Amino acid sequence: MKSFAFLLLIALLCATASAQIAIFTIDDFEADTEALVILAQTGVPKVETDFTVDPSIIGGERDVQLNSFTGNNVVLSASVSAGLYSSAAPQGGTGSSLLQYDGEDNTLTLDPSGLDEDFSGQGAYAFRTNITADLPTTVTFRVYSGSAASFCQYDLRIPGSGIATLFTLRYVDFNSTGAGCSFSNIGAIEVEANLPDSVDVTIAVIEVIALPSVTPTRTISITPSPSRIPESPSQTRTPTRTPTPTRTPSSAPRSPSNTPSPSSCLCTCPELECFMFKYGETTFYGDRANYLRDVRDVEEAEEGFDFLKFF
């Protein structure tokens, strides 16, 4: 049972290693932006903008733009409050909302070199964002590296379930326009939400992520317990006591013993030969030497243990 518990712990640690970790945050939307409101008029596209300066935002500033495309006396809106970026179009109206990160410039004119950030360090490989929409729509991410005519773009399709969903946007899945971009030299980022008729879109966070490093820091050696020490050949398994002349305590150090100590130690392991076995409905992998020493006892003693193969 101890061997099974140890291997189960290893399996859980391997599963945890596949989790993503945040390297840094582009915007957590904790810094508020006042609501932008447009009363749409037929045939008259309108634009509203606002700028929020805060150190929690990448580049120190968030530029927000709201556009109305169609609608007759209906209201479109966009705002940042309580950790959420929200934009909406009413029934009978359409438009778009834009987040722009290109440094502190107090303008929506794009500066494709405004950030000068490296998004490839520490193993970073993707953006991660949490988005909710009550109707199907698209949120487009654009990344620039010095030229407004060249960028990388990811069109993220939101299903419209009304449920907050975490999305991972891998760098390798971005499409390039012109010369594309370099994720090690990011000059500006834009996030544009399409607002079709009657949609509400909410973004909770935008961040850069990596997979955790799985470099081992300790090697654990399992020393056989005294109960597994092979017995010396004998006609009987009953130990015989040898009388001693006296039990006078001695301060002399004990003589070395050939019996392995049950305490653990740190060591350098040899090259492993793997095996695979099944316990109940779960399959595990391990070292052949550990199987011969430890796991075979479980196989013989516990019901539901099924040794599979070496490889």
Characterise this structure.
It is a single chain. With 311 residues, this protein is mainly beta. The protein folds into two domains: 1-18 and 267-311, no CATH class; 21-210, Jelly Rolls. It has two helices and 19 strands. The protein has helices at 2-17, 288-301, and strands at 21-27, 33-40, 46-53, 61-70, 74-81, 84-88, 94-101, 124-133, 137-144, 151-158, 165-170, 175-177, 188-195, 200-210, 220-221, 265-266, 274-279, 282-287, 305-310. The strands form four sheets. Strands 1, 2, 5, 6, 8, 11 and 14 form a seven-stranded antiparallel β-sheet that branches. Strands 3-4-7-13-9-10-12 form a seven-stranded antiparallel β-sheet, with no helix packed on it. Strands 18-17-19 form a three-stranded antiparallel β-sheet. The two termini are 24 Å apart. The model is unreliable at 1-18, 214-257, 259-273, 277-285 and 287-311 (pLDDT under 50).
Topology:
Elements: H1 2-17, E1 21-27, E2 33-40, E3 46-53, E4 61-70, E5 74-81, E6 84-88, E7 94-101, E8 124-133, E9 137-144, E10 151-158, E11 165-170, E12 175-177, E13 188-195, E14 200-210, E15 220-221, E16 265-266, E17 274-279, E18 282-287, H2 288-301, E19 305-310
Number of domains: 2
Provide the helix percentage: under 10%
- The number of strands is 19
End-to-end separation in angstroms reads 24 Å
Largest sheet: 7 strands, antiparallel
Broad CATH class of the largest domain: Mainly Beta
Indicate the CATH topology of the largest domain. Jelly Rolls
Structural class: mainly beta
